[in-house]
Q: What sequence folds into this?
């Protein structure tokens, strides 16, 4: 029996981000969907919009995590759902010590809105590329934030 290496992100990230790259894989396979149910993504985006209106920055972070949970759920994989829940739980711990949750979370609502529009328009390759870019930016931002907490 062949041993399967654990899936790793294509860039060096802390272990808590390893599962986030699964979102890119989900979007990459989107072209094979007959009609993806995007209501969970719509709901998470609306949740983020309400959080901004209410200036509830921790709630904006929660909405972003809900968006990524819903994005992963499009794969229809219980194992991926479990992995995403673990990654998101660990991310919540990191977010709980952020000095400025508004500055940290605010840019992601626009990115989530963009991804949702691309998926609604069935522009899956563009959505995959946009999500890969989004995750690169998020990785850099998270590493800077973690460095500032450590130093």
A:
């Amino acid at each position: 029996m062949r041993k399967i290496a654990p899936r790793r992100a294509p860039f060096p990230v802390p272990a808590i981000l390893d599962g986030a790259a699964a979102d890119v894989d989900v979007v990459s396979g989107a072209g094979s969907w007959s009609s993806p149910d995007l209501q969970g993504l719509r709901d998470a985006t609306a949740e983020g919009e309400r959080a901004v209106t209410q200036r509830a920055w921790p709630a904006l972070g929660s909405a972003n995590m809900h968006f990524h949970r819903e994005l992963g759920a499009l794969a229809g994989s219980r194992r991926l759902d479990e992995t995403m829940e673990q990654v998101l739980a660990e991310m919540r711990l990191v977010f709980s010590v952020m000095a400025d949750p508004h500055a940290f979370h605010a840019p992601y609502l626009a990115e989530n809105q963009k991804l949702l529009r691309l998926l609604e328009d069935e522009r899956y390759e563009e959505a995959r590329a946009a999500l890969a870019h989004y995750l690169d930016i998020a990785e850099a931002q998270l590493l800077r934030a973690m460095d500032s907490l450590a130093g």
